[in-house]
Each structure stands twice: as C-alpha cells, then as structure tokens.
Input
Amino acid sequence: MAENVEAEIGQITFYLAKAGTGFDTILDDDADLDTKLAIRIADFEVDETECRFIYFETHSVRGNPPWLDFVNERAGAADPFSFADASRSPNGILLIKTEDRLFSAVFGRSAASCLNRKTLEPDFGIKTAMNMCGNEEIRQTRTQSNAITPTHIDRQASRPSDSFVFGLSEAEDLRYISAHIKGQKNTTLQGRDNLTVKVIGEEKLTWERLVAQCQTFLERFEARDYIDLFPNYRNFQPATEAETEKLNVLLLEALKAKDYSKVDLCIPEFLSAEEYSFTFSNKPKMENMVYSFLTPALLEEVFKKPDALTLDRLENKKIFAFSPAEDRVLGHMRWPIYDCLVYEHAIGDDYFVLSSGRWTKVDPEFHQSIVDFMANRVREEDAEPWCCDIDISDNQAKQNTETKFNNKIVELRPGAILFDRAKLKIGTGRKDKEFCDILELCADGRMRIINVKKYKDAASISYLFSQAKFYCEAFLHDDIFLSEIRDHIESSPCLSKADYLAYIKPSIEDNHGREYTLCLWLLFNKADPKPEKDNIPLISQYELKLMHDHLRRICKFQDIVIRFIPVKVTRYTQAKKNK
Output
C-alpha cells in the first residue's frame, strides 16, 4: 500500500485585506458568486487558524475569430473553415484568518476579480517582497514614471542582481519586484498589490508552512526596511484618509468643469496596444462602444451630466478590455474608472498624485529636489523682442497653431531653417520625425536648436521636454537621423545652408553636444500675465529635470534655455446645428 504523502504546492498568490475585513466583506458584490457554476464553500481549520475555501467554475463559448471569417469570405465559400469551443475552468478563493487579519489566496483565471479591491491593502506584495528580499537578489522590476502620461518600464536581469544594476530612476515609482528571499535561493517572491510565492526543490508549501508563511508576511509587511533599501520607492507614499477625501473633491470639481489639463485616463497596468481596445460596458446582446485608446474626454460619453459624476460612480463604473482577436469584451479584465484616472494637485506645500486608484504624497525631499532644480539650474531668459506678439491664429482652421508662429519666425529670420513638420527618420523607424521646430546659426557662430510649444496643460509641456530629449540624443547618436537632418538642410531654401552643413558634420563622431544650445520656447497669450517657470506643473518640471540632466551631463550640451514668448491668440467659438 502506498505511503500517504502530505500535499504540497509550489506557487501561490496572496492578497492581504485591510483590518476589520471579514470572510464576507472581502468579496465583491458585483461578482455575483451565488450565480457561479458549481459554487461550493467549505470552512475548516489548520493549526487553529480559520480558513474558508470557495470553489466555482466559469464557462466560455468561443466561435470563429474575425480573421477566420475574413479568410472564409474568399477561401472557404463551399467548405468554410470553422471553429467552436466550449470550456469550463476551475477557480478558487482560499481565505486564511491569522492574527485578526485576513489573507486571500486566489486560483484560476477569474478568482482575483471576485475580491473587493477597496478592502485590500495597497502595495502589500511589493512592501513585503522588498522587506524580505532586500536589494541584492533581484530578478525583475516594473516601475511607473509619475507623469501625466504614465510610462511602465520593465527591467529584467539574466541572473539575480543588486538594485543598482537595474538603473532605477529617483522618480520612478517601483510597482513590482521579483527577487529571492534572503538566504533562500529556492524561494522567489513577486510583489505588487499581491504577493506571489514560488518555491522549487523540496521546501514547497504544506498546509502548516502556508499558515506560518502568512504570519511571517504580515510581520514583514509592517516593517520599514524598504525605506533605506529602495529610496526611490519612498518618493510616493499613500495619502491619509483626510487628504484623500479632500483631493477626491478637487478631482470631481475638475472633471465636472471638463478641465483635463492635469487629468489622464489609462489602464493601471501594462497591456499591449496591439491586443486590446477598451469599452465602458459589457452587454452580452447589445452593442458596446469600443475605443482604440482612452482619453479623459471619453468620460463625457459615460457621464452625460456633471451631476452624474460622483465618487461612487467613478469607483463602480468599469472599463473593460476588448479583444479584437476574439471579437468580444473580456469580462474578467475590468478596472474601475477611478483606478484608471491620473491626476495631480497641491494642498498647501504638499503635492499629491492620483494613480492606480490611490492618492500618493510626493516625498518632501524629492519634491524639494525638483524645486531646487527649477530655482538653481534652469536658465530662463526674457523673450527676444523680435519674436514677440506674433499672431498665431488661423482663421480658416479656427485654431491657434504653433505652425503659424514657426513660419513667421523663419520669415523674420531668413537665415533660419524650418524643421516643423519635417518628415525625418530615426534608425529603422517611420519617416515622421522633426528634430526641432527651428534651427538657427546665430551671428556669434553658435547654433541653437529651438523647440516650440503652446503653454497650456501638463501633457503638452511634458511632451515638449521629452521630445527635445529624444531628438537631441538621436541627433548625436543615430547615423540615419543625422543624414536625414543634413538632407533636409540641403533641400531648404536657406541661402546660408552651406554654413549649416559645414557646422553639422556628416559623421556622428565629429558632432558634439557642447557645440549646441537647446532653446525651449513656450508660447502664451499676451493678454494674460507672463507665466513663471515655478508655475509649470510638477510632473512637467520633473520631465524637464530628466531632460536637462541627460542632455547636460550625458550629451554635454552647452546650454539649455527656457523662454516664455507672448503671442496674439484669438478665441474662436463655433455654432453648429444638431444633426
């Protein structure tokens, strides 16, 4: 007779509920667990620890994907290709109550979506992993740049490495880490809001070890080792409940006023743009409006009247992923609209950012470093009189455009070369790059690269700074881009283009950043007071700091100068009949 072997498990994912959460309140009412297939609940104890297991099944039916219908239109008229599949999948939620705190382990594809996210501890997994693993045996990280357009950055080392190998920026919010537990090379922790434990070898988790691990996770979650181990993580810490309530009121006021200058709408995790679109509904028999990408203005389609915008509705209304390949809404891939909002606001001297459904307070030291940078390192000069008061209004298009300004600059300075709307190529990419708006060889023999943008929202200003960084770096390092720039100069009507071509050498190694000055021109309505550089949104100031540090320290640019340029702006209004 075979000897009984104690059951083990090598991988499991945990969530930690907030204090006061019980077996029933951790579950999302919208999940409708009572209606699930084969639903079954079992209560039991392990070493006097209360446990509950909830089992259910999901059923899905799949037919022809769109690409197969497309092929059938021509290839399968007599005998069309067809696909049909019906499948059931098992799912489980294991609840473990230890020291009056509730852990939830999830199994299967749909289990995690049945948890009430409001009841879960944010950053439980990543804090626990940082405290238990330290910063020496890291395999993977994911960070998010805290900007009006959040950027997810994934890094992976071929072998466990120290954190400095990953090159984490001071203003990247660490959102995920995968590393070995100190002294346990066979156990890997993967931390984000949840914590995934992977064990290889003989030390897999038995029931007793599982309960003991939960107690350890709770202790290490509450530790503060991570503050010294991962200084970039502390730059953004959770706001208090009182601060959050006040900030939510300010957010609602901005949305009701349709002021999107500091608002963005995006899924709070990385999704391939090629694989997913998005919708605000999941109607099985009716059409769902599907959007290829998200913008804050789409909220006006969801909330027709300002009064409809409430915090509860933002938290309860969902954004769903839509799969073009499967031609269906993926019900298990859904996020509250509130979790998809990005917003920034200051209260007194404190600065806050809303991202992934949580308000975080910018670390005062980190914030002060940006303030000091703006005060001491950013060079601002007055606008040159000859380029002031230019009319940038386009009556035909009924818009105020940077193009009108750039064209007028080249008209006033015939020795300058227009690069605005140039179609240039970097590497093997598309031929749609500009390099800059205006290139000017000055009378003192120095060349300045001028980038122009209207002074309006944070996204626009941040784009100016990040675009300047990207193009200037490519100019000094990409052979194809350099060649395209020289070709554009050669084909320009500028009478002194030979001087430009003599200045910009044909070989990358012969061009140096110290020979160039980067100029950033921000256009503002001359009827309004001149903006101050300190009034630039914080996230844009940070983008400027990143660009400034890189171009000055790495690319060795001679100088970077900001100017606020007053221009004439026309306020257009249009009346259109309803169709």
